[in-house]
Amino acid sequence: MSDVREAEGRMRLHKPQVVFGVGGGTKIDIAKLSSANQRVPFISVPTTASHDSMASPFASIKGTGRPYSIKAQSPIAVIADTSIIMEAPYRFTASGCGDVISKITSTLDWKLAHERREEYYAQYTSSLASMSARHIIENSSLIKPGSEEGVRVLLEALVSCGVAMCIAGTSKPCSGSEHLFSHALDLVAPRRALHGEQCGLGTIMMAALHGIDWRVIRDTLRIVGAPTTAEEIGIEDEYIIEALVKAREIRPERYTILNEKPLTYRSAKMLAEETGVIG
Questions:
Q1: pLDDT in tens, 88-126
Q2: pTM to 2 decimals?
Q3: Which of 17, 22, 161, 163 has the fewest CB atoms within 10 Å, counting from its CB?
Q4: What is the CATH number of domain 2-79?
């Protein structure tokens, strides 16, 4: 939060008409939250395409006391230069695909919460988010190192996800059980992988819990060069299992498939093994 406070101080001093957030997800989120607090419009200028923060109204900031994102404000514009984004390590692009494909399970979780708890649910918004995931699946062969067309496909999907959250006024269409797993992993593992990489693994396992074809998700991630195993992201199996068990506790108010099918250590281990996430 110190970076957010520093940015707010500069805004009070210089009184800008608009704030530009230039960089990766962390820089954009700092600009997003600080400008929201100072009631200054914000423009997002991403230099990587690693997750959907570039167009969403939510920010993930260390020091807030929450392992998940908080409401900030939507950008009034997103300026994404594909030639600049292509200069970033390809790992960030593959991570972005993991974040987008997670909408397969997050939208299922959102609908489940509506059915079980009569929570607000918007079919159009859900369709927009899930369509973004299908866009990646259907065009996965285009997403590869050095492919500007692939970057465009990913950017379209990421911006659509951000718009879905703007319309819904909640992160639920884009953040479900797979994100809870990723947030839990951030807390229990001694080191982190990229957000989208963790969400990709989470989506494989949560898809299996939902009873849908998790192999399609795994295969798509492999095609775009994203990790599909704990070994590939450098995290030991024990932390994957612990995060699966702990995930439901991260946001108790958020109803997901983990409420329908609570995981014990044994069932979490079986889930991770059956989907090939751990060996």
A1: 999 999 999 999 999 999 999 999 999 999 999 999 999
A2: 0.94
A3: 17
A4: 3.40.50.1970
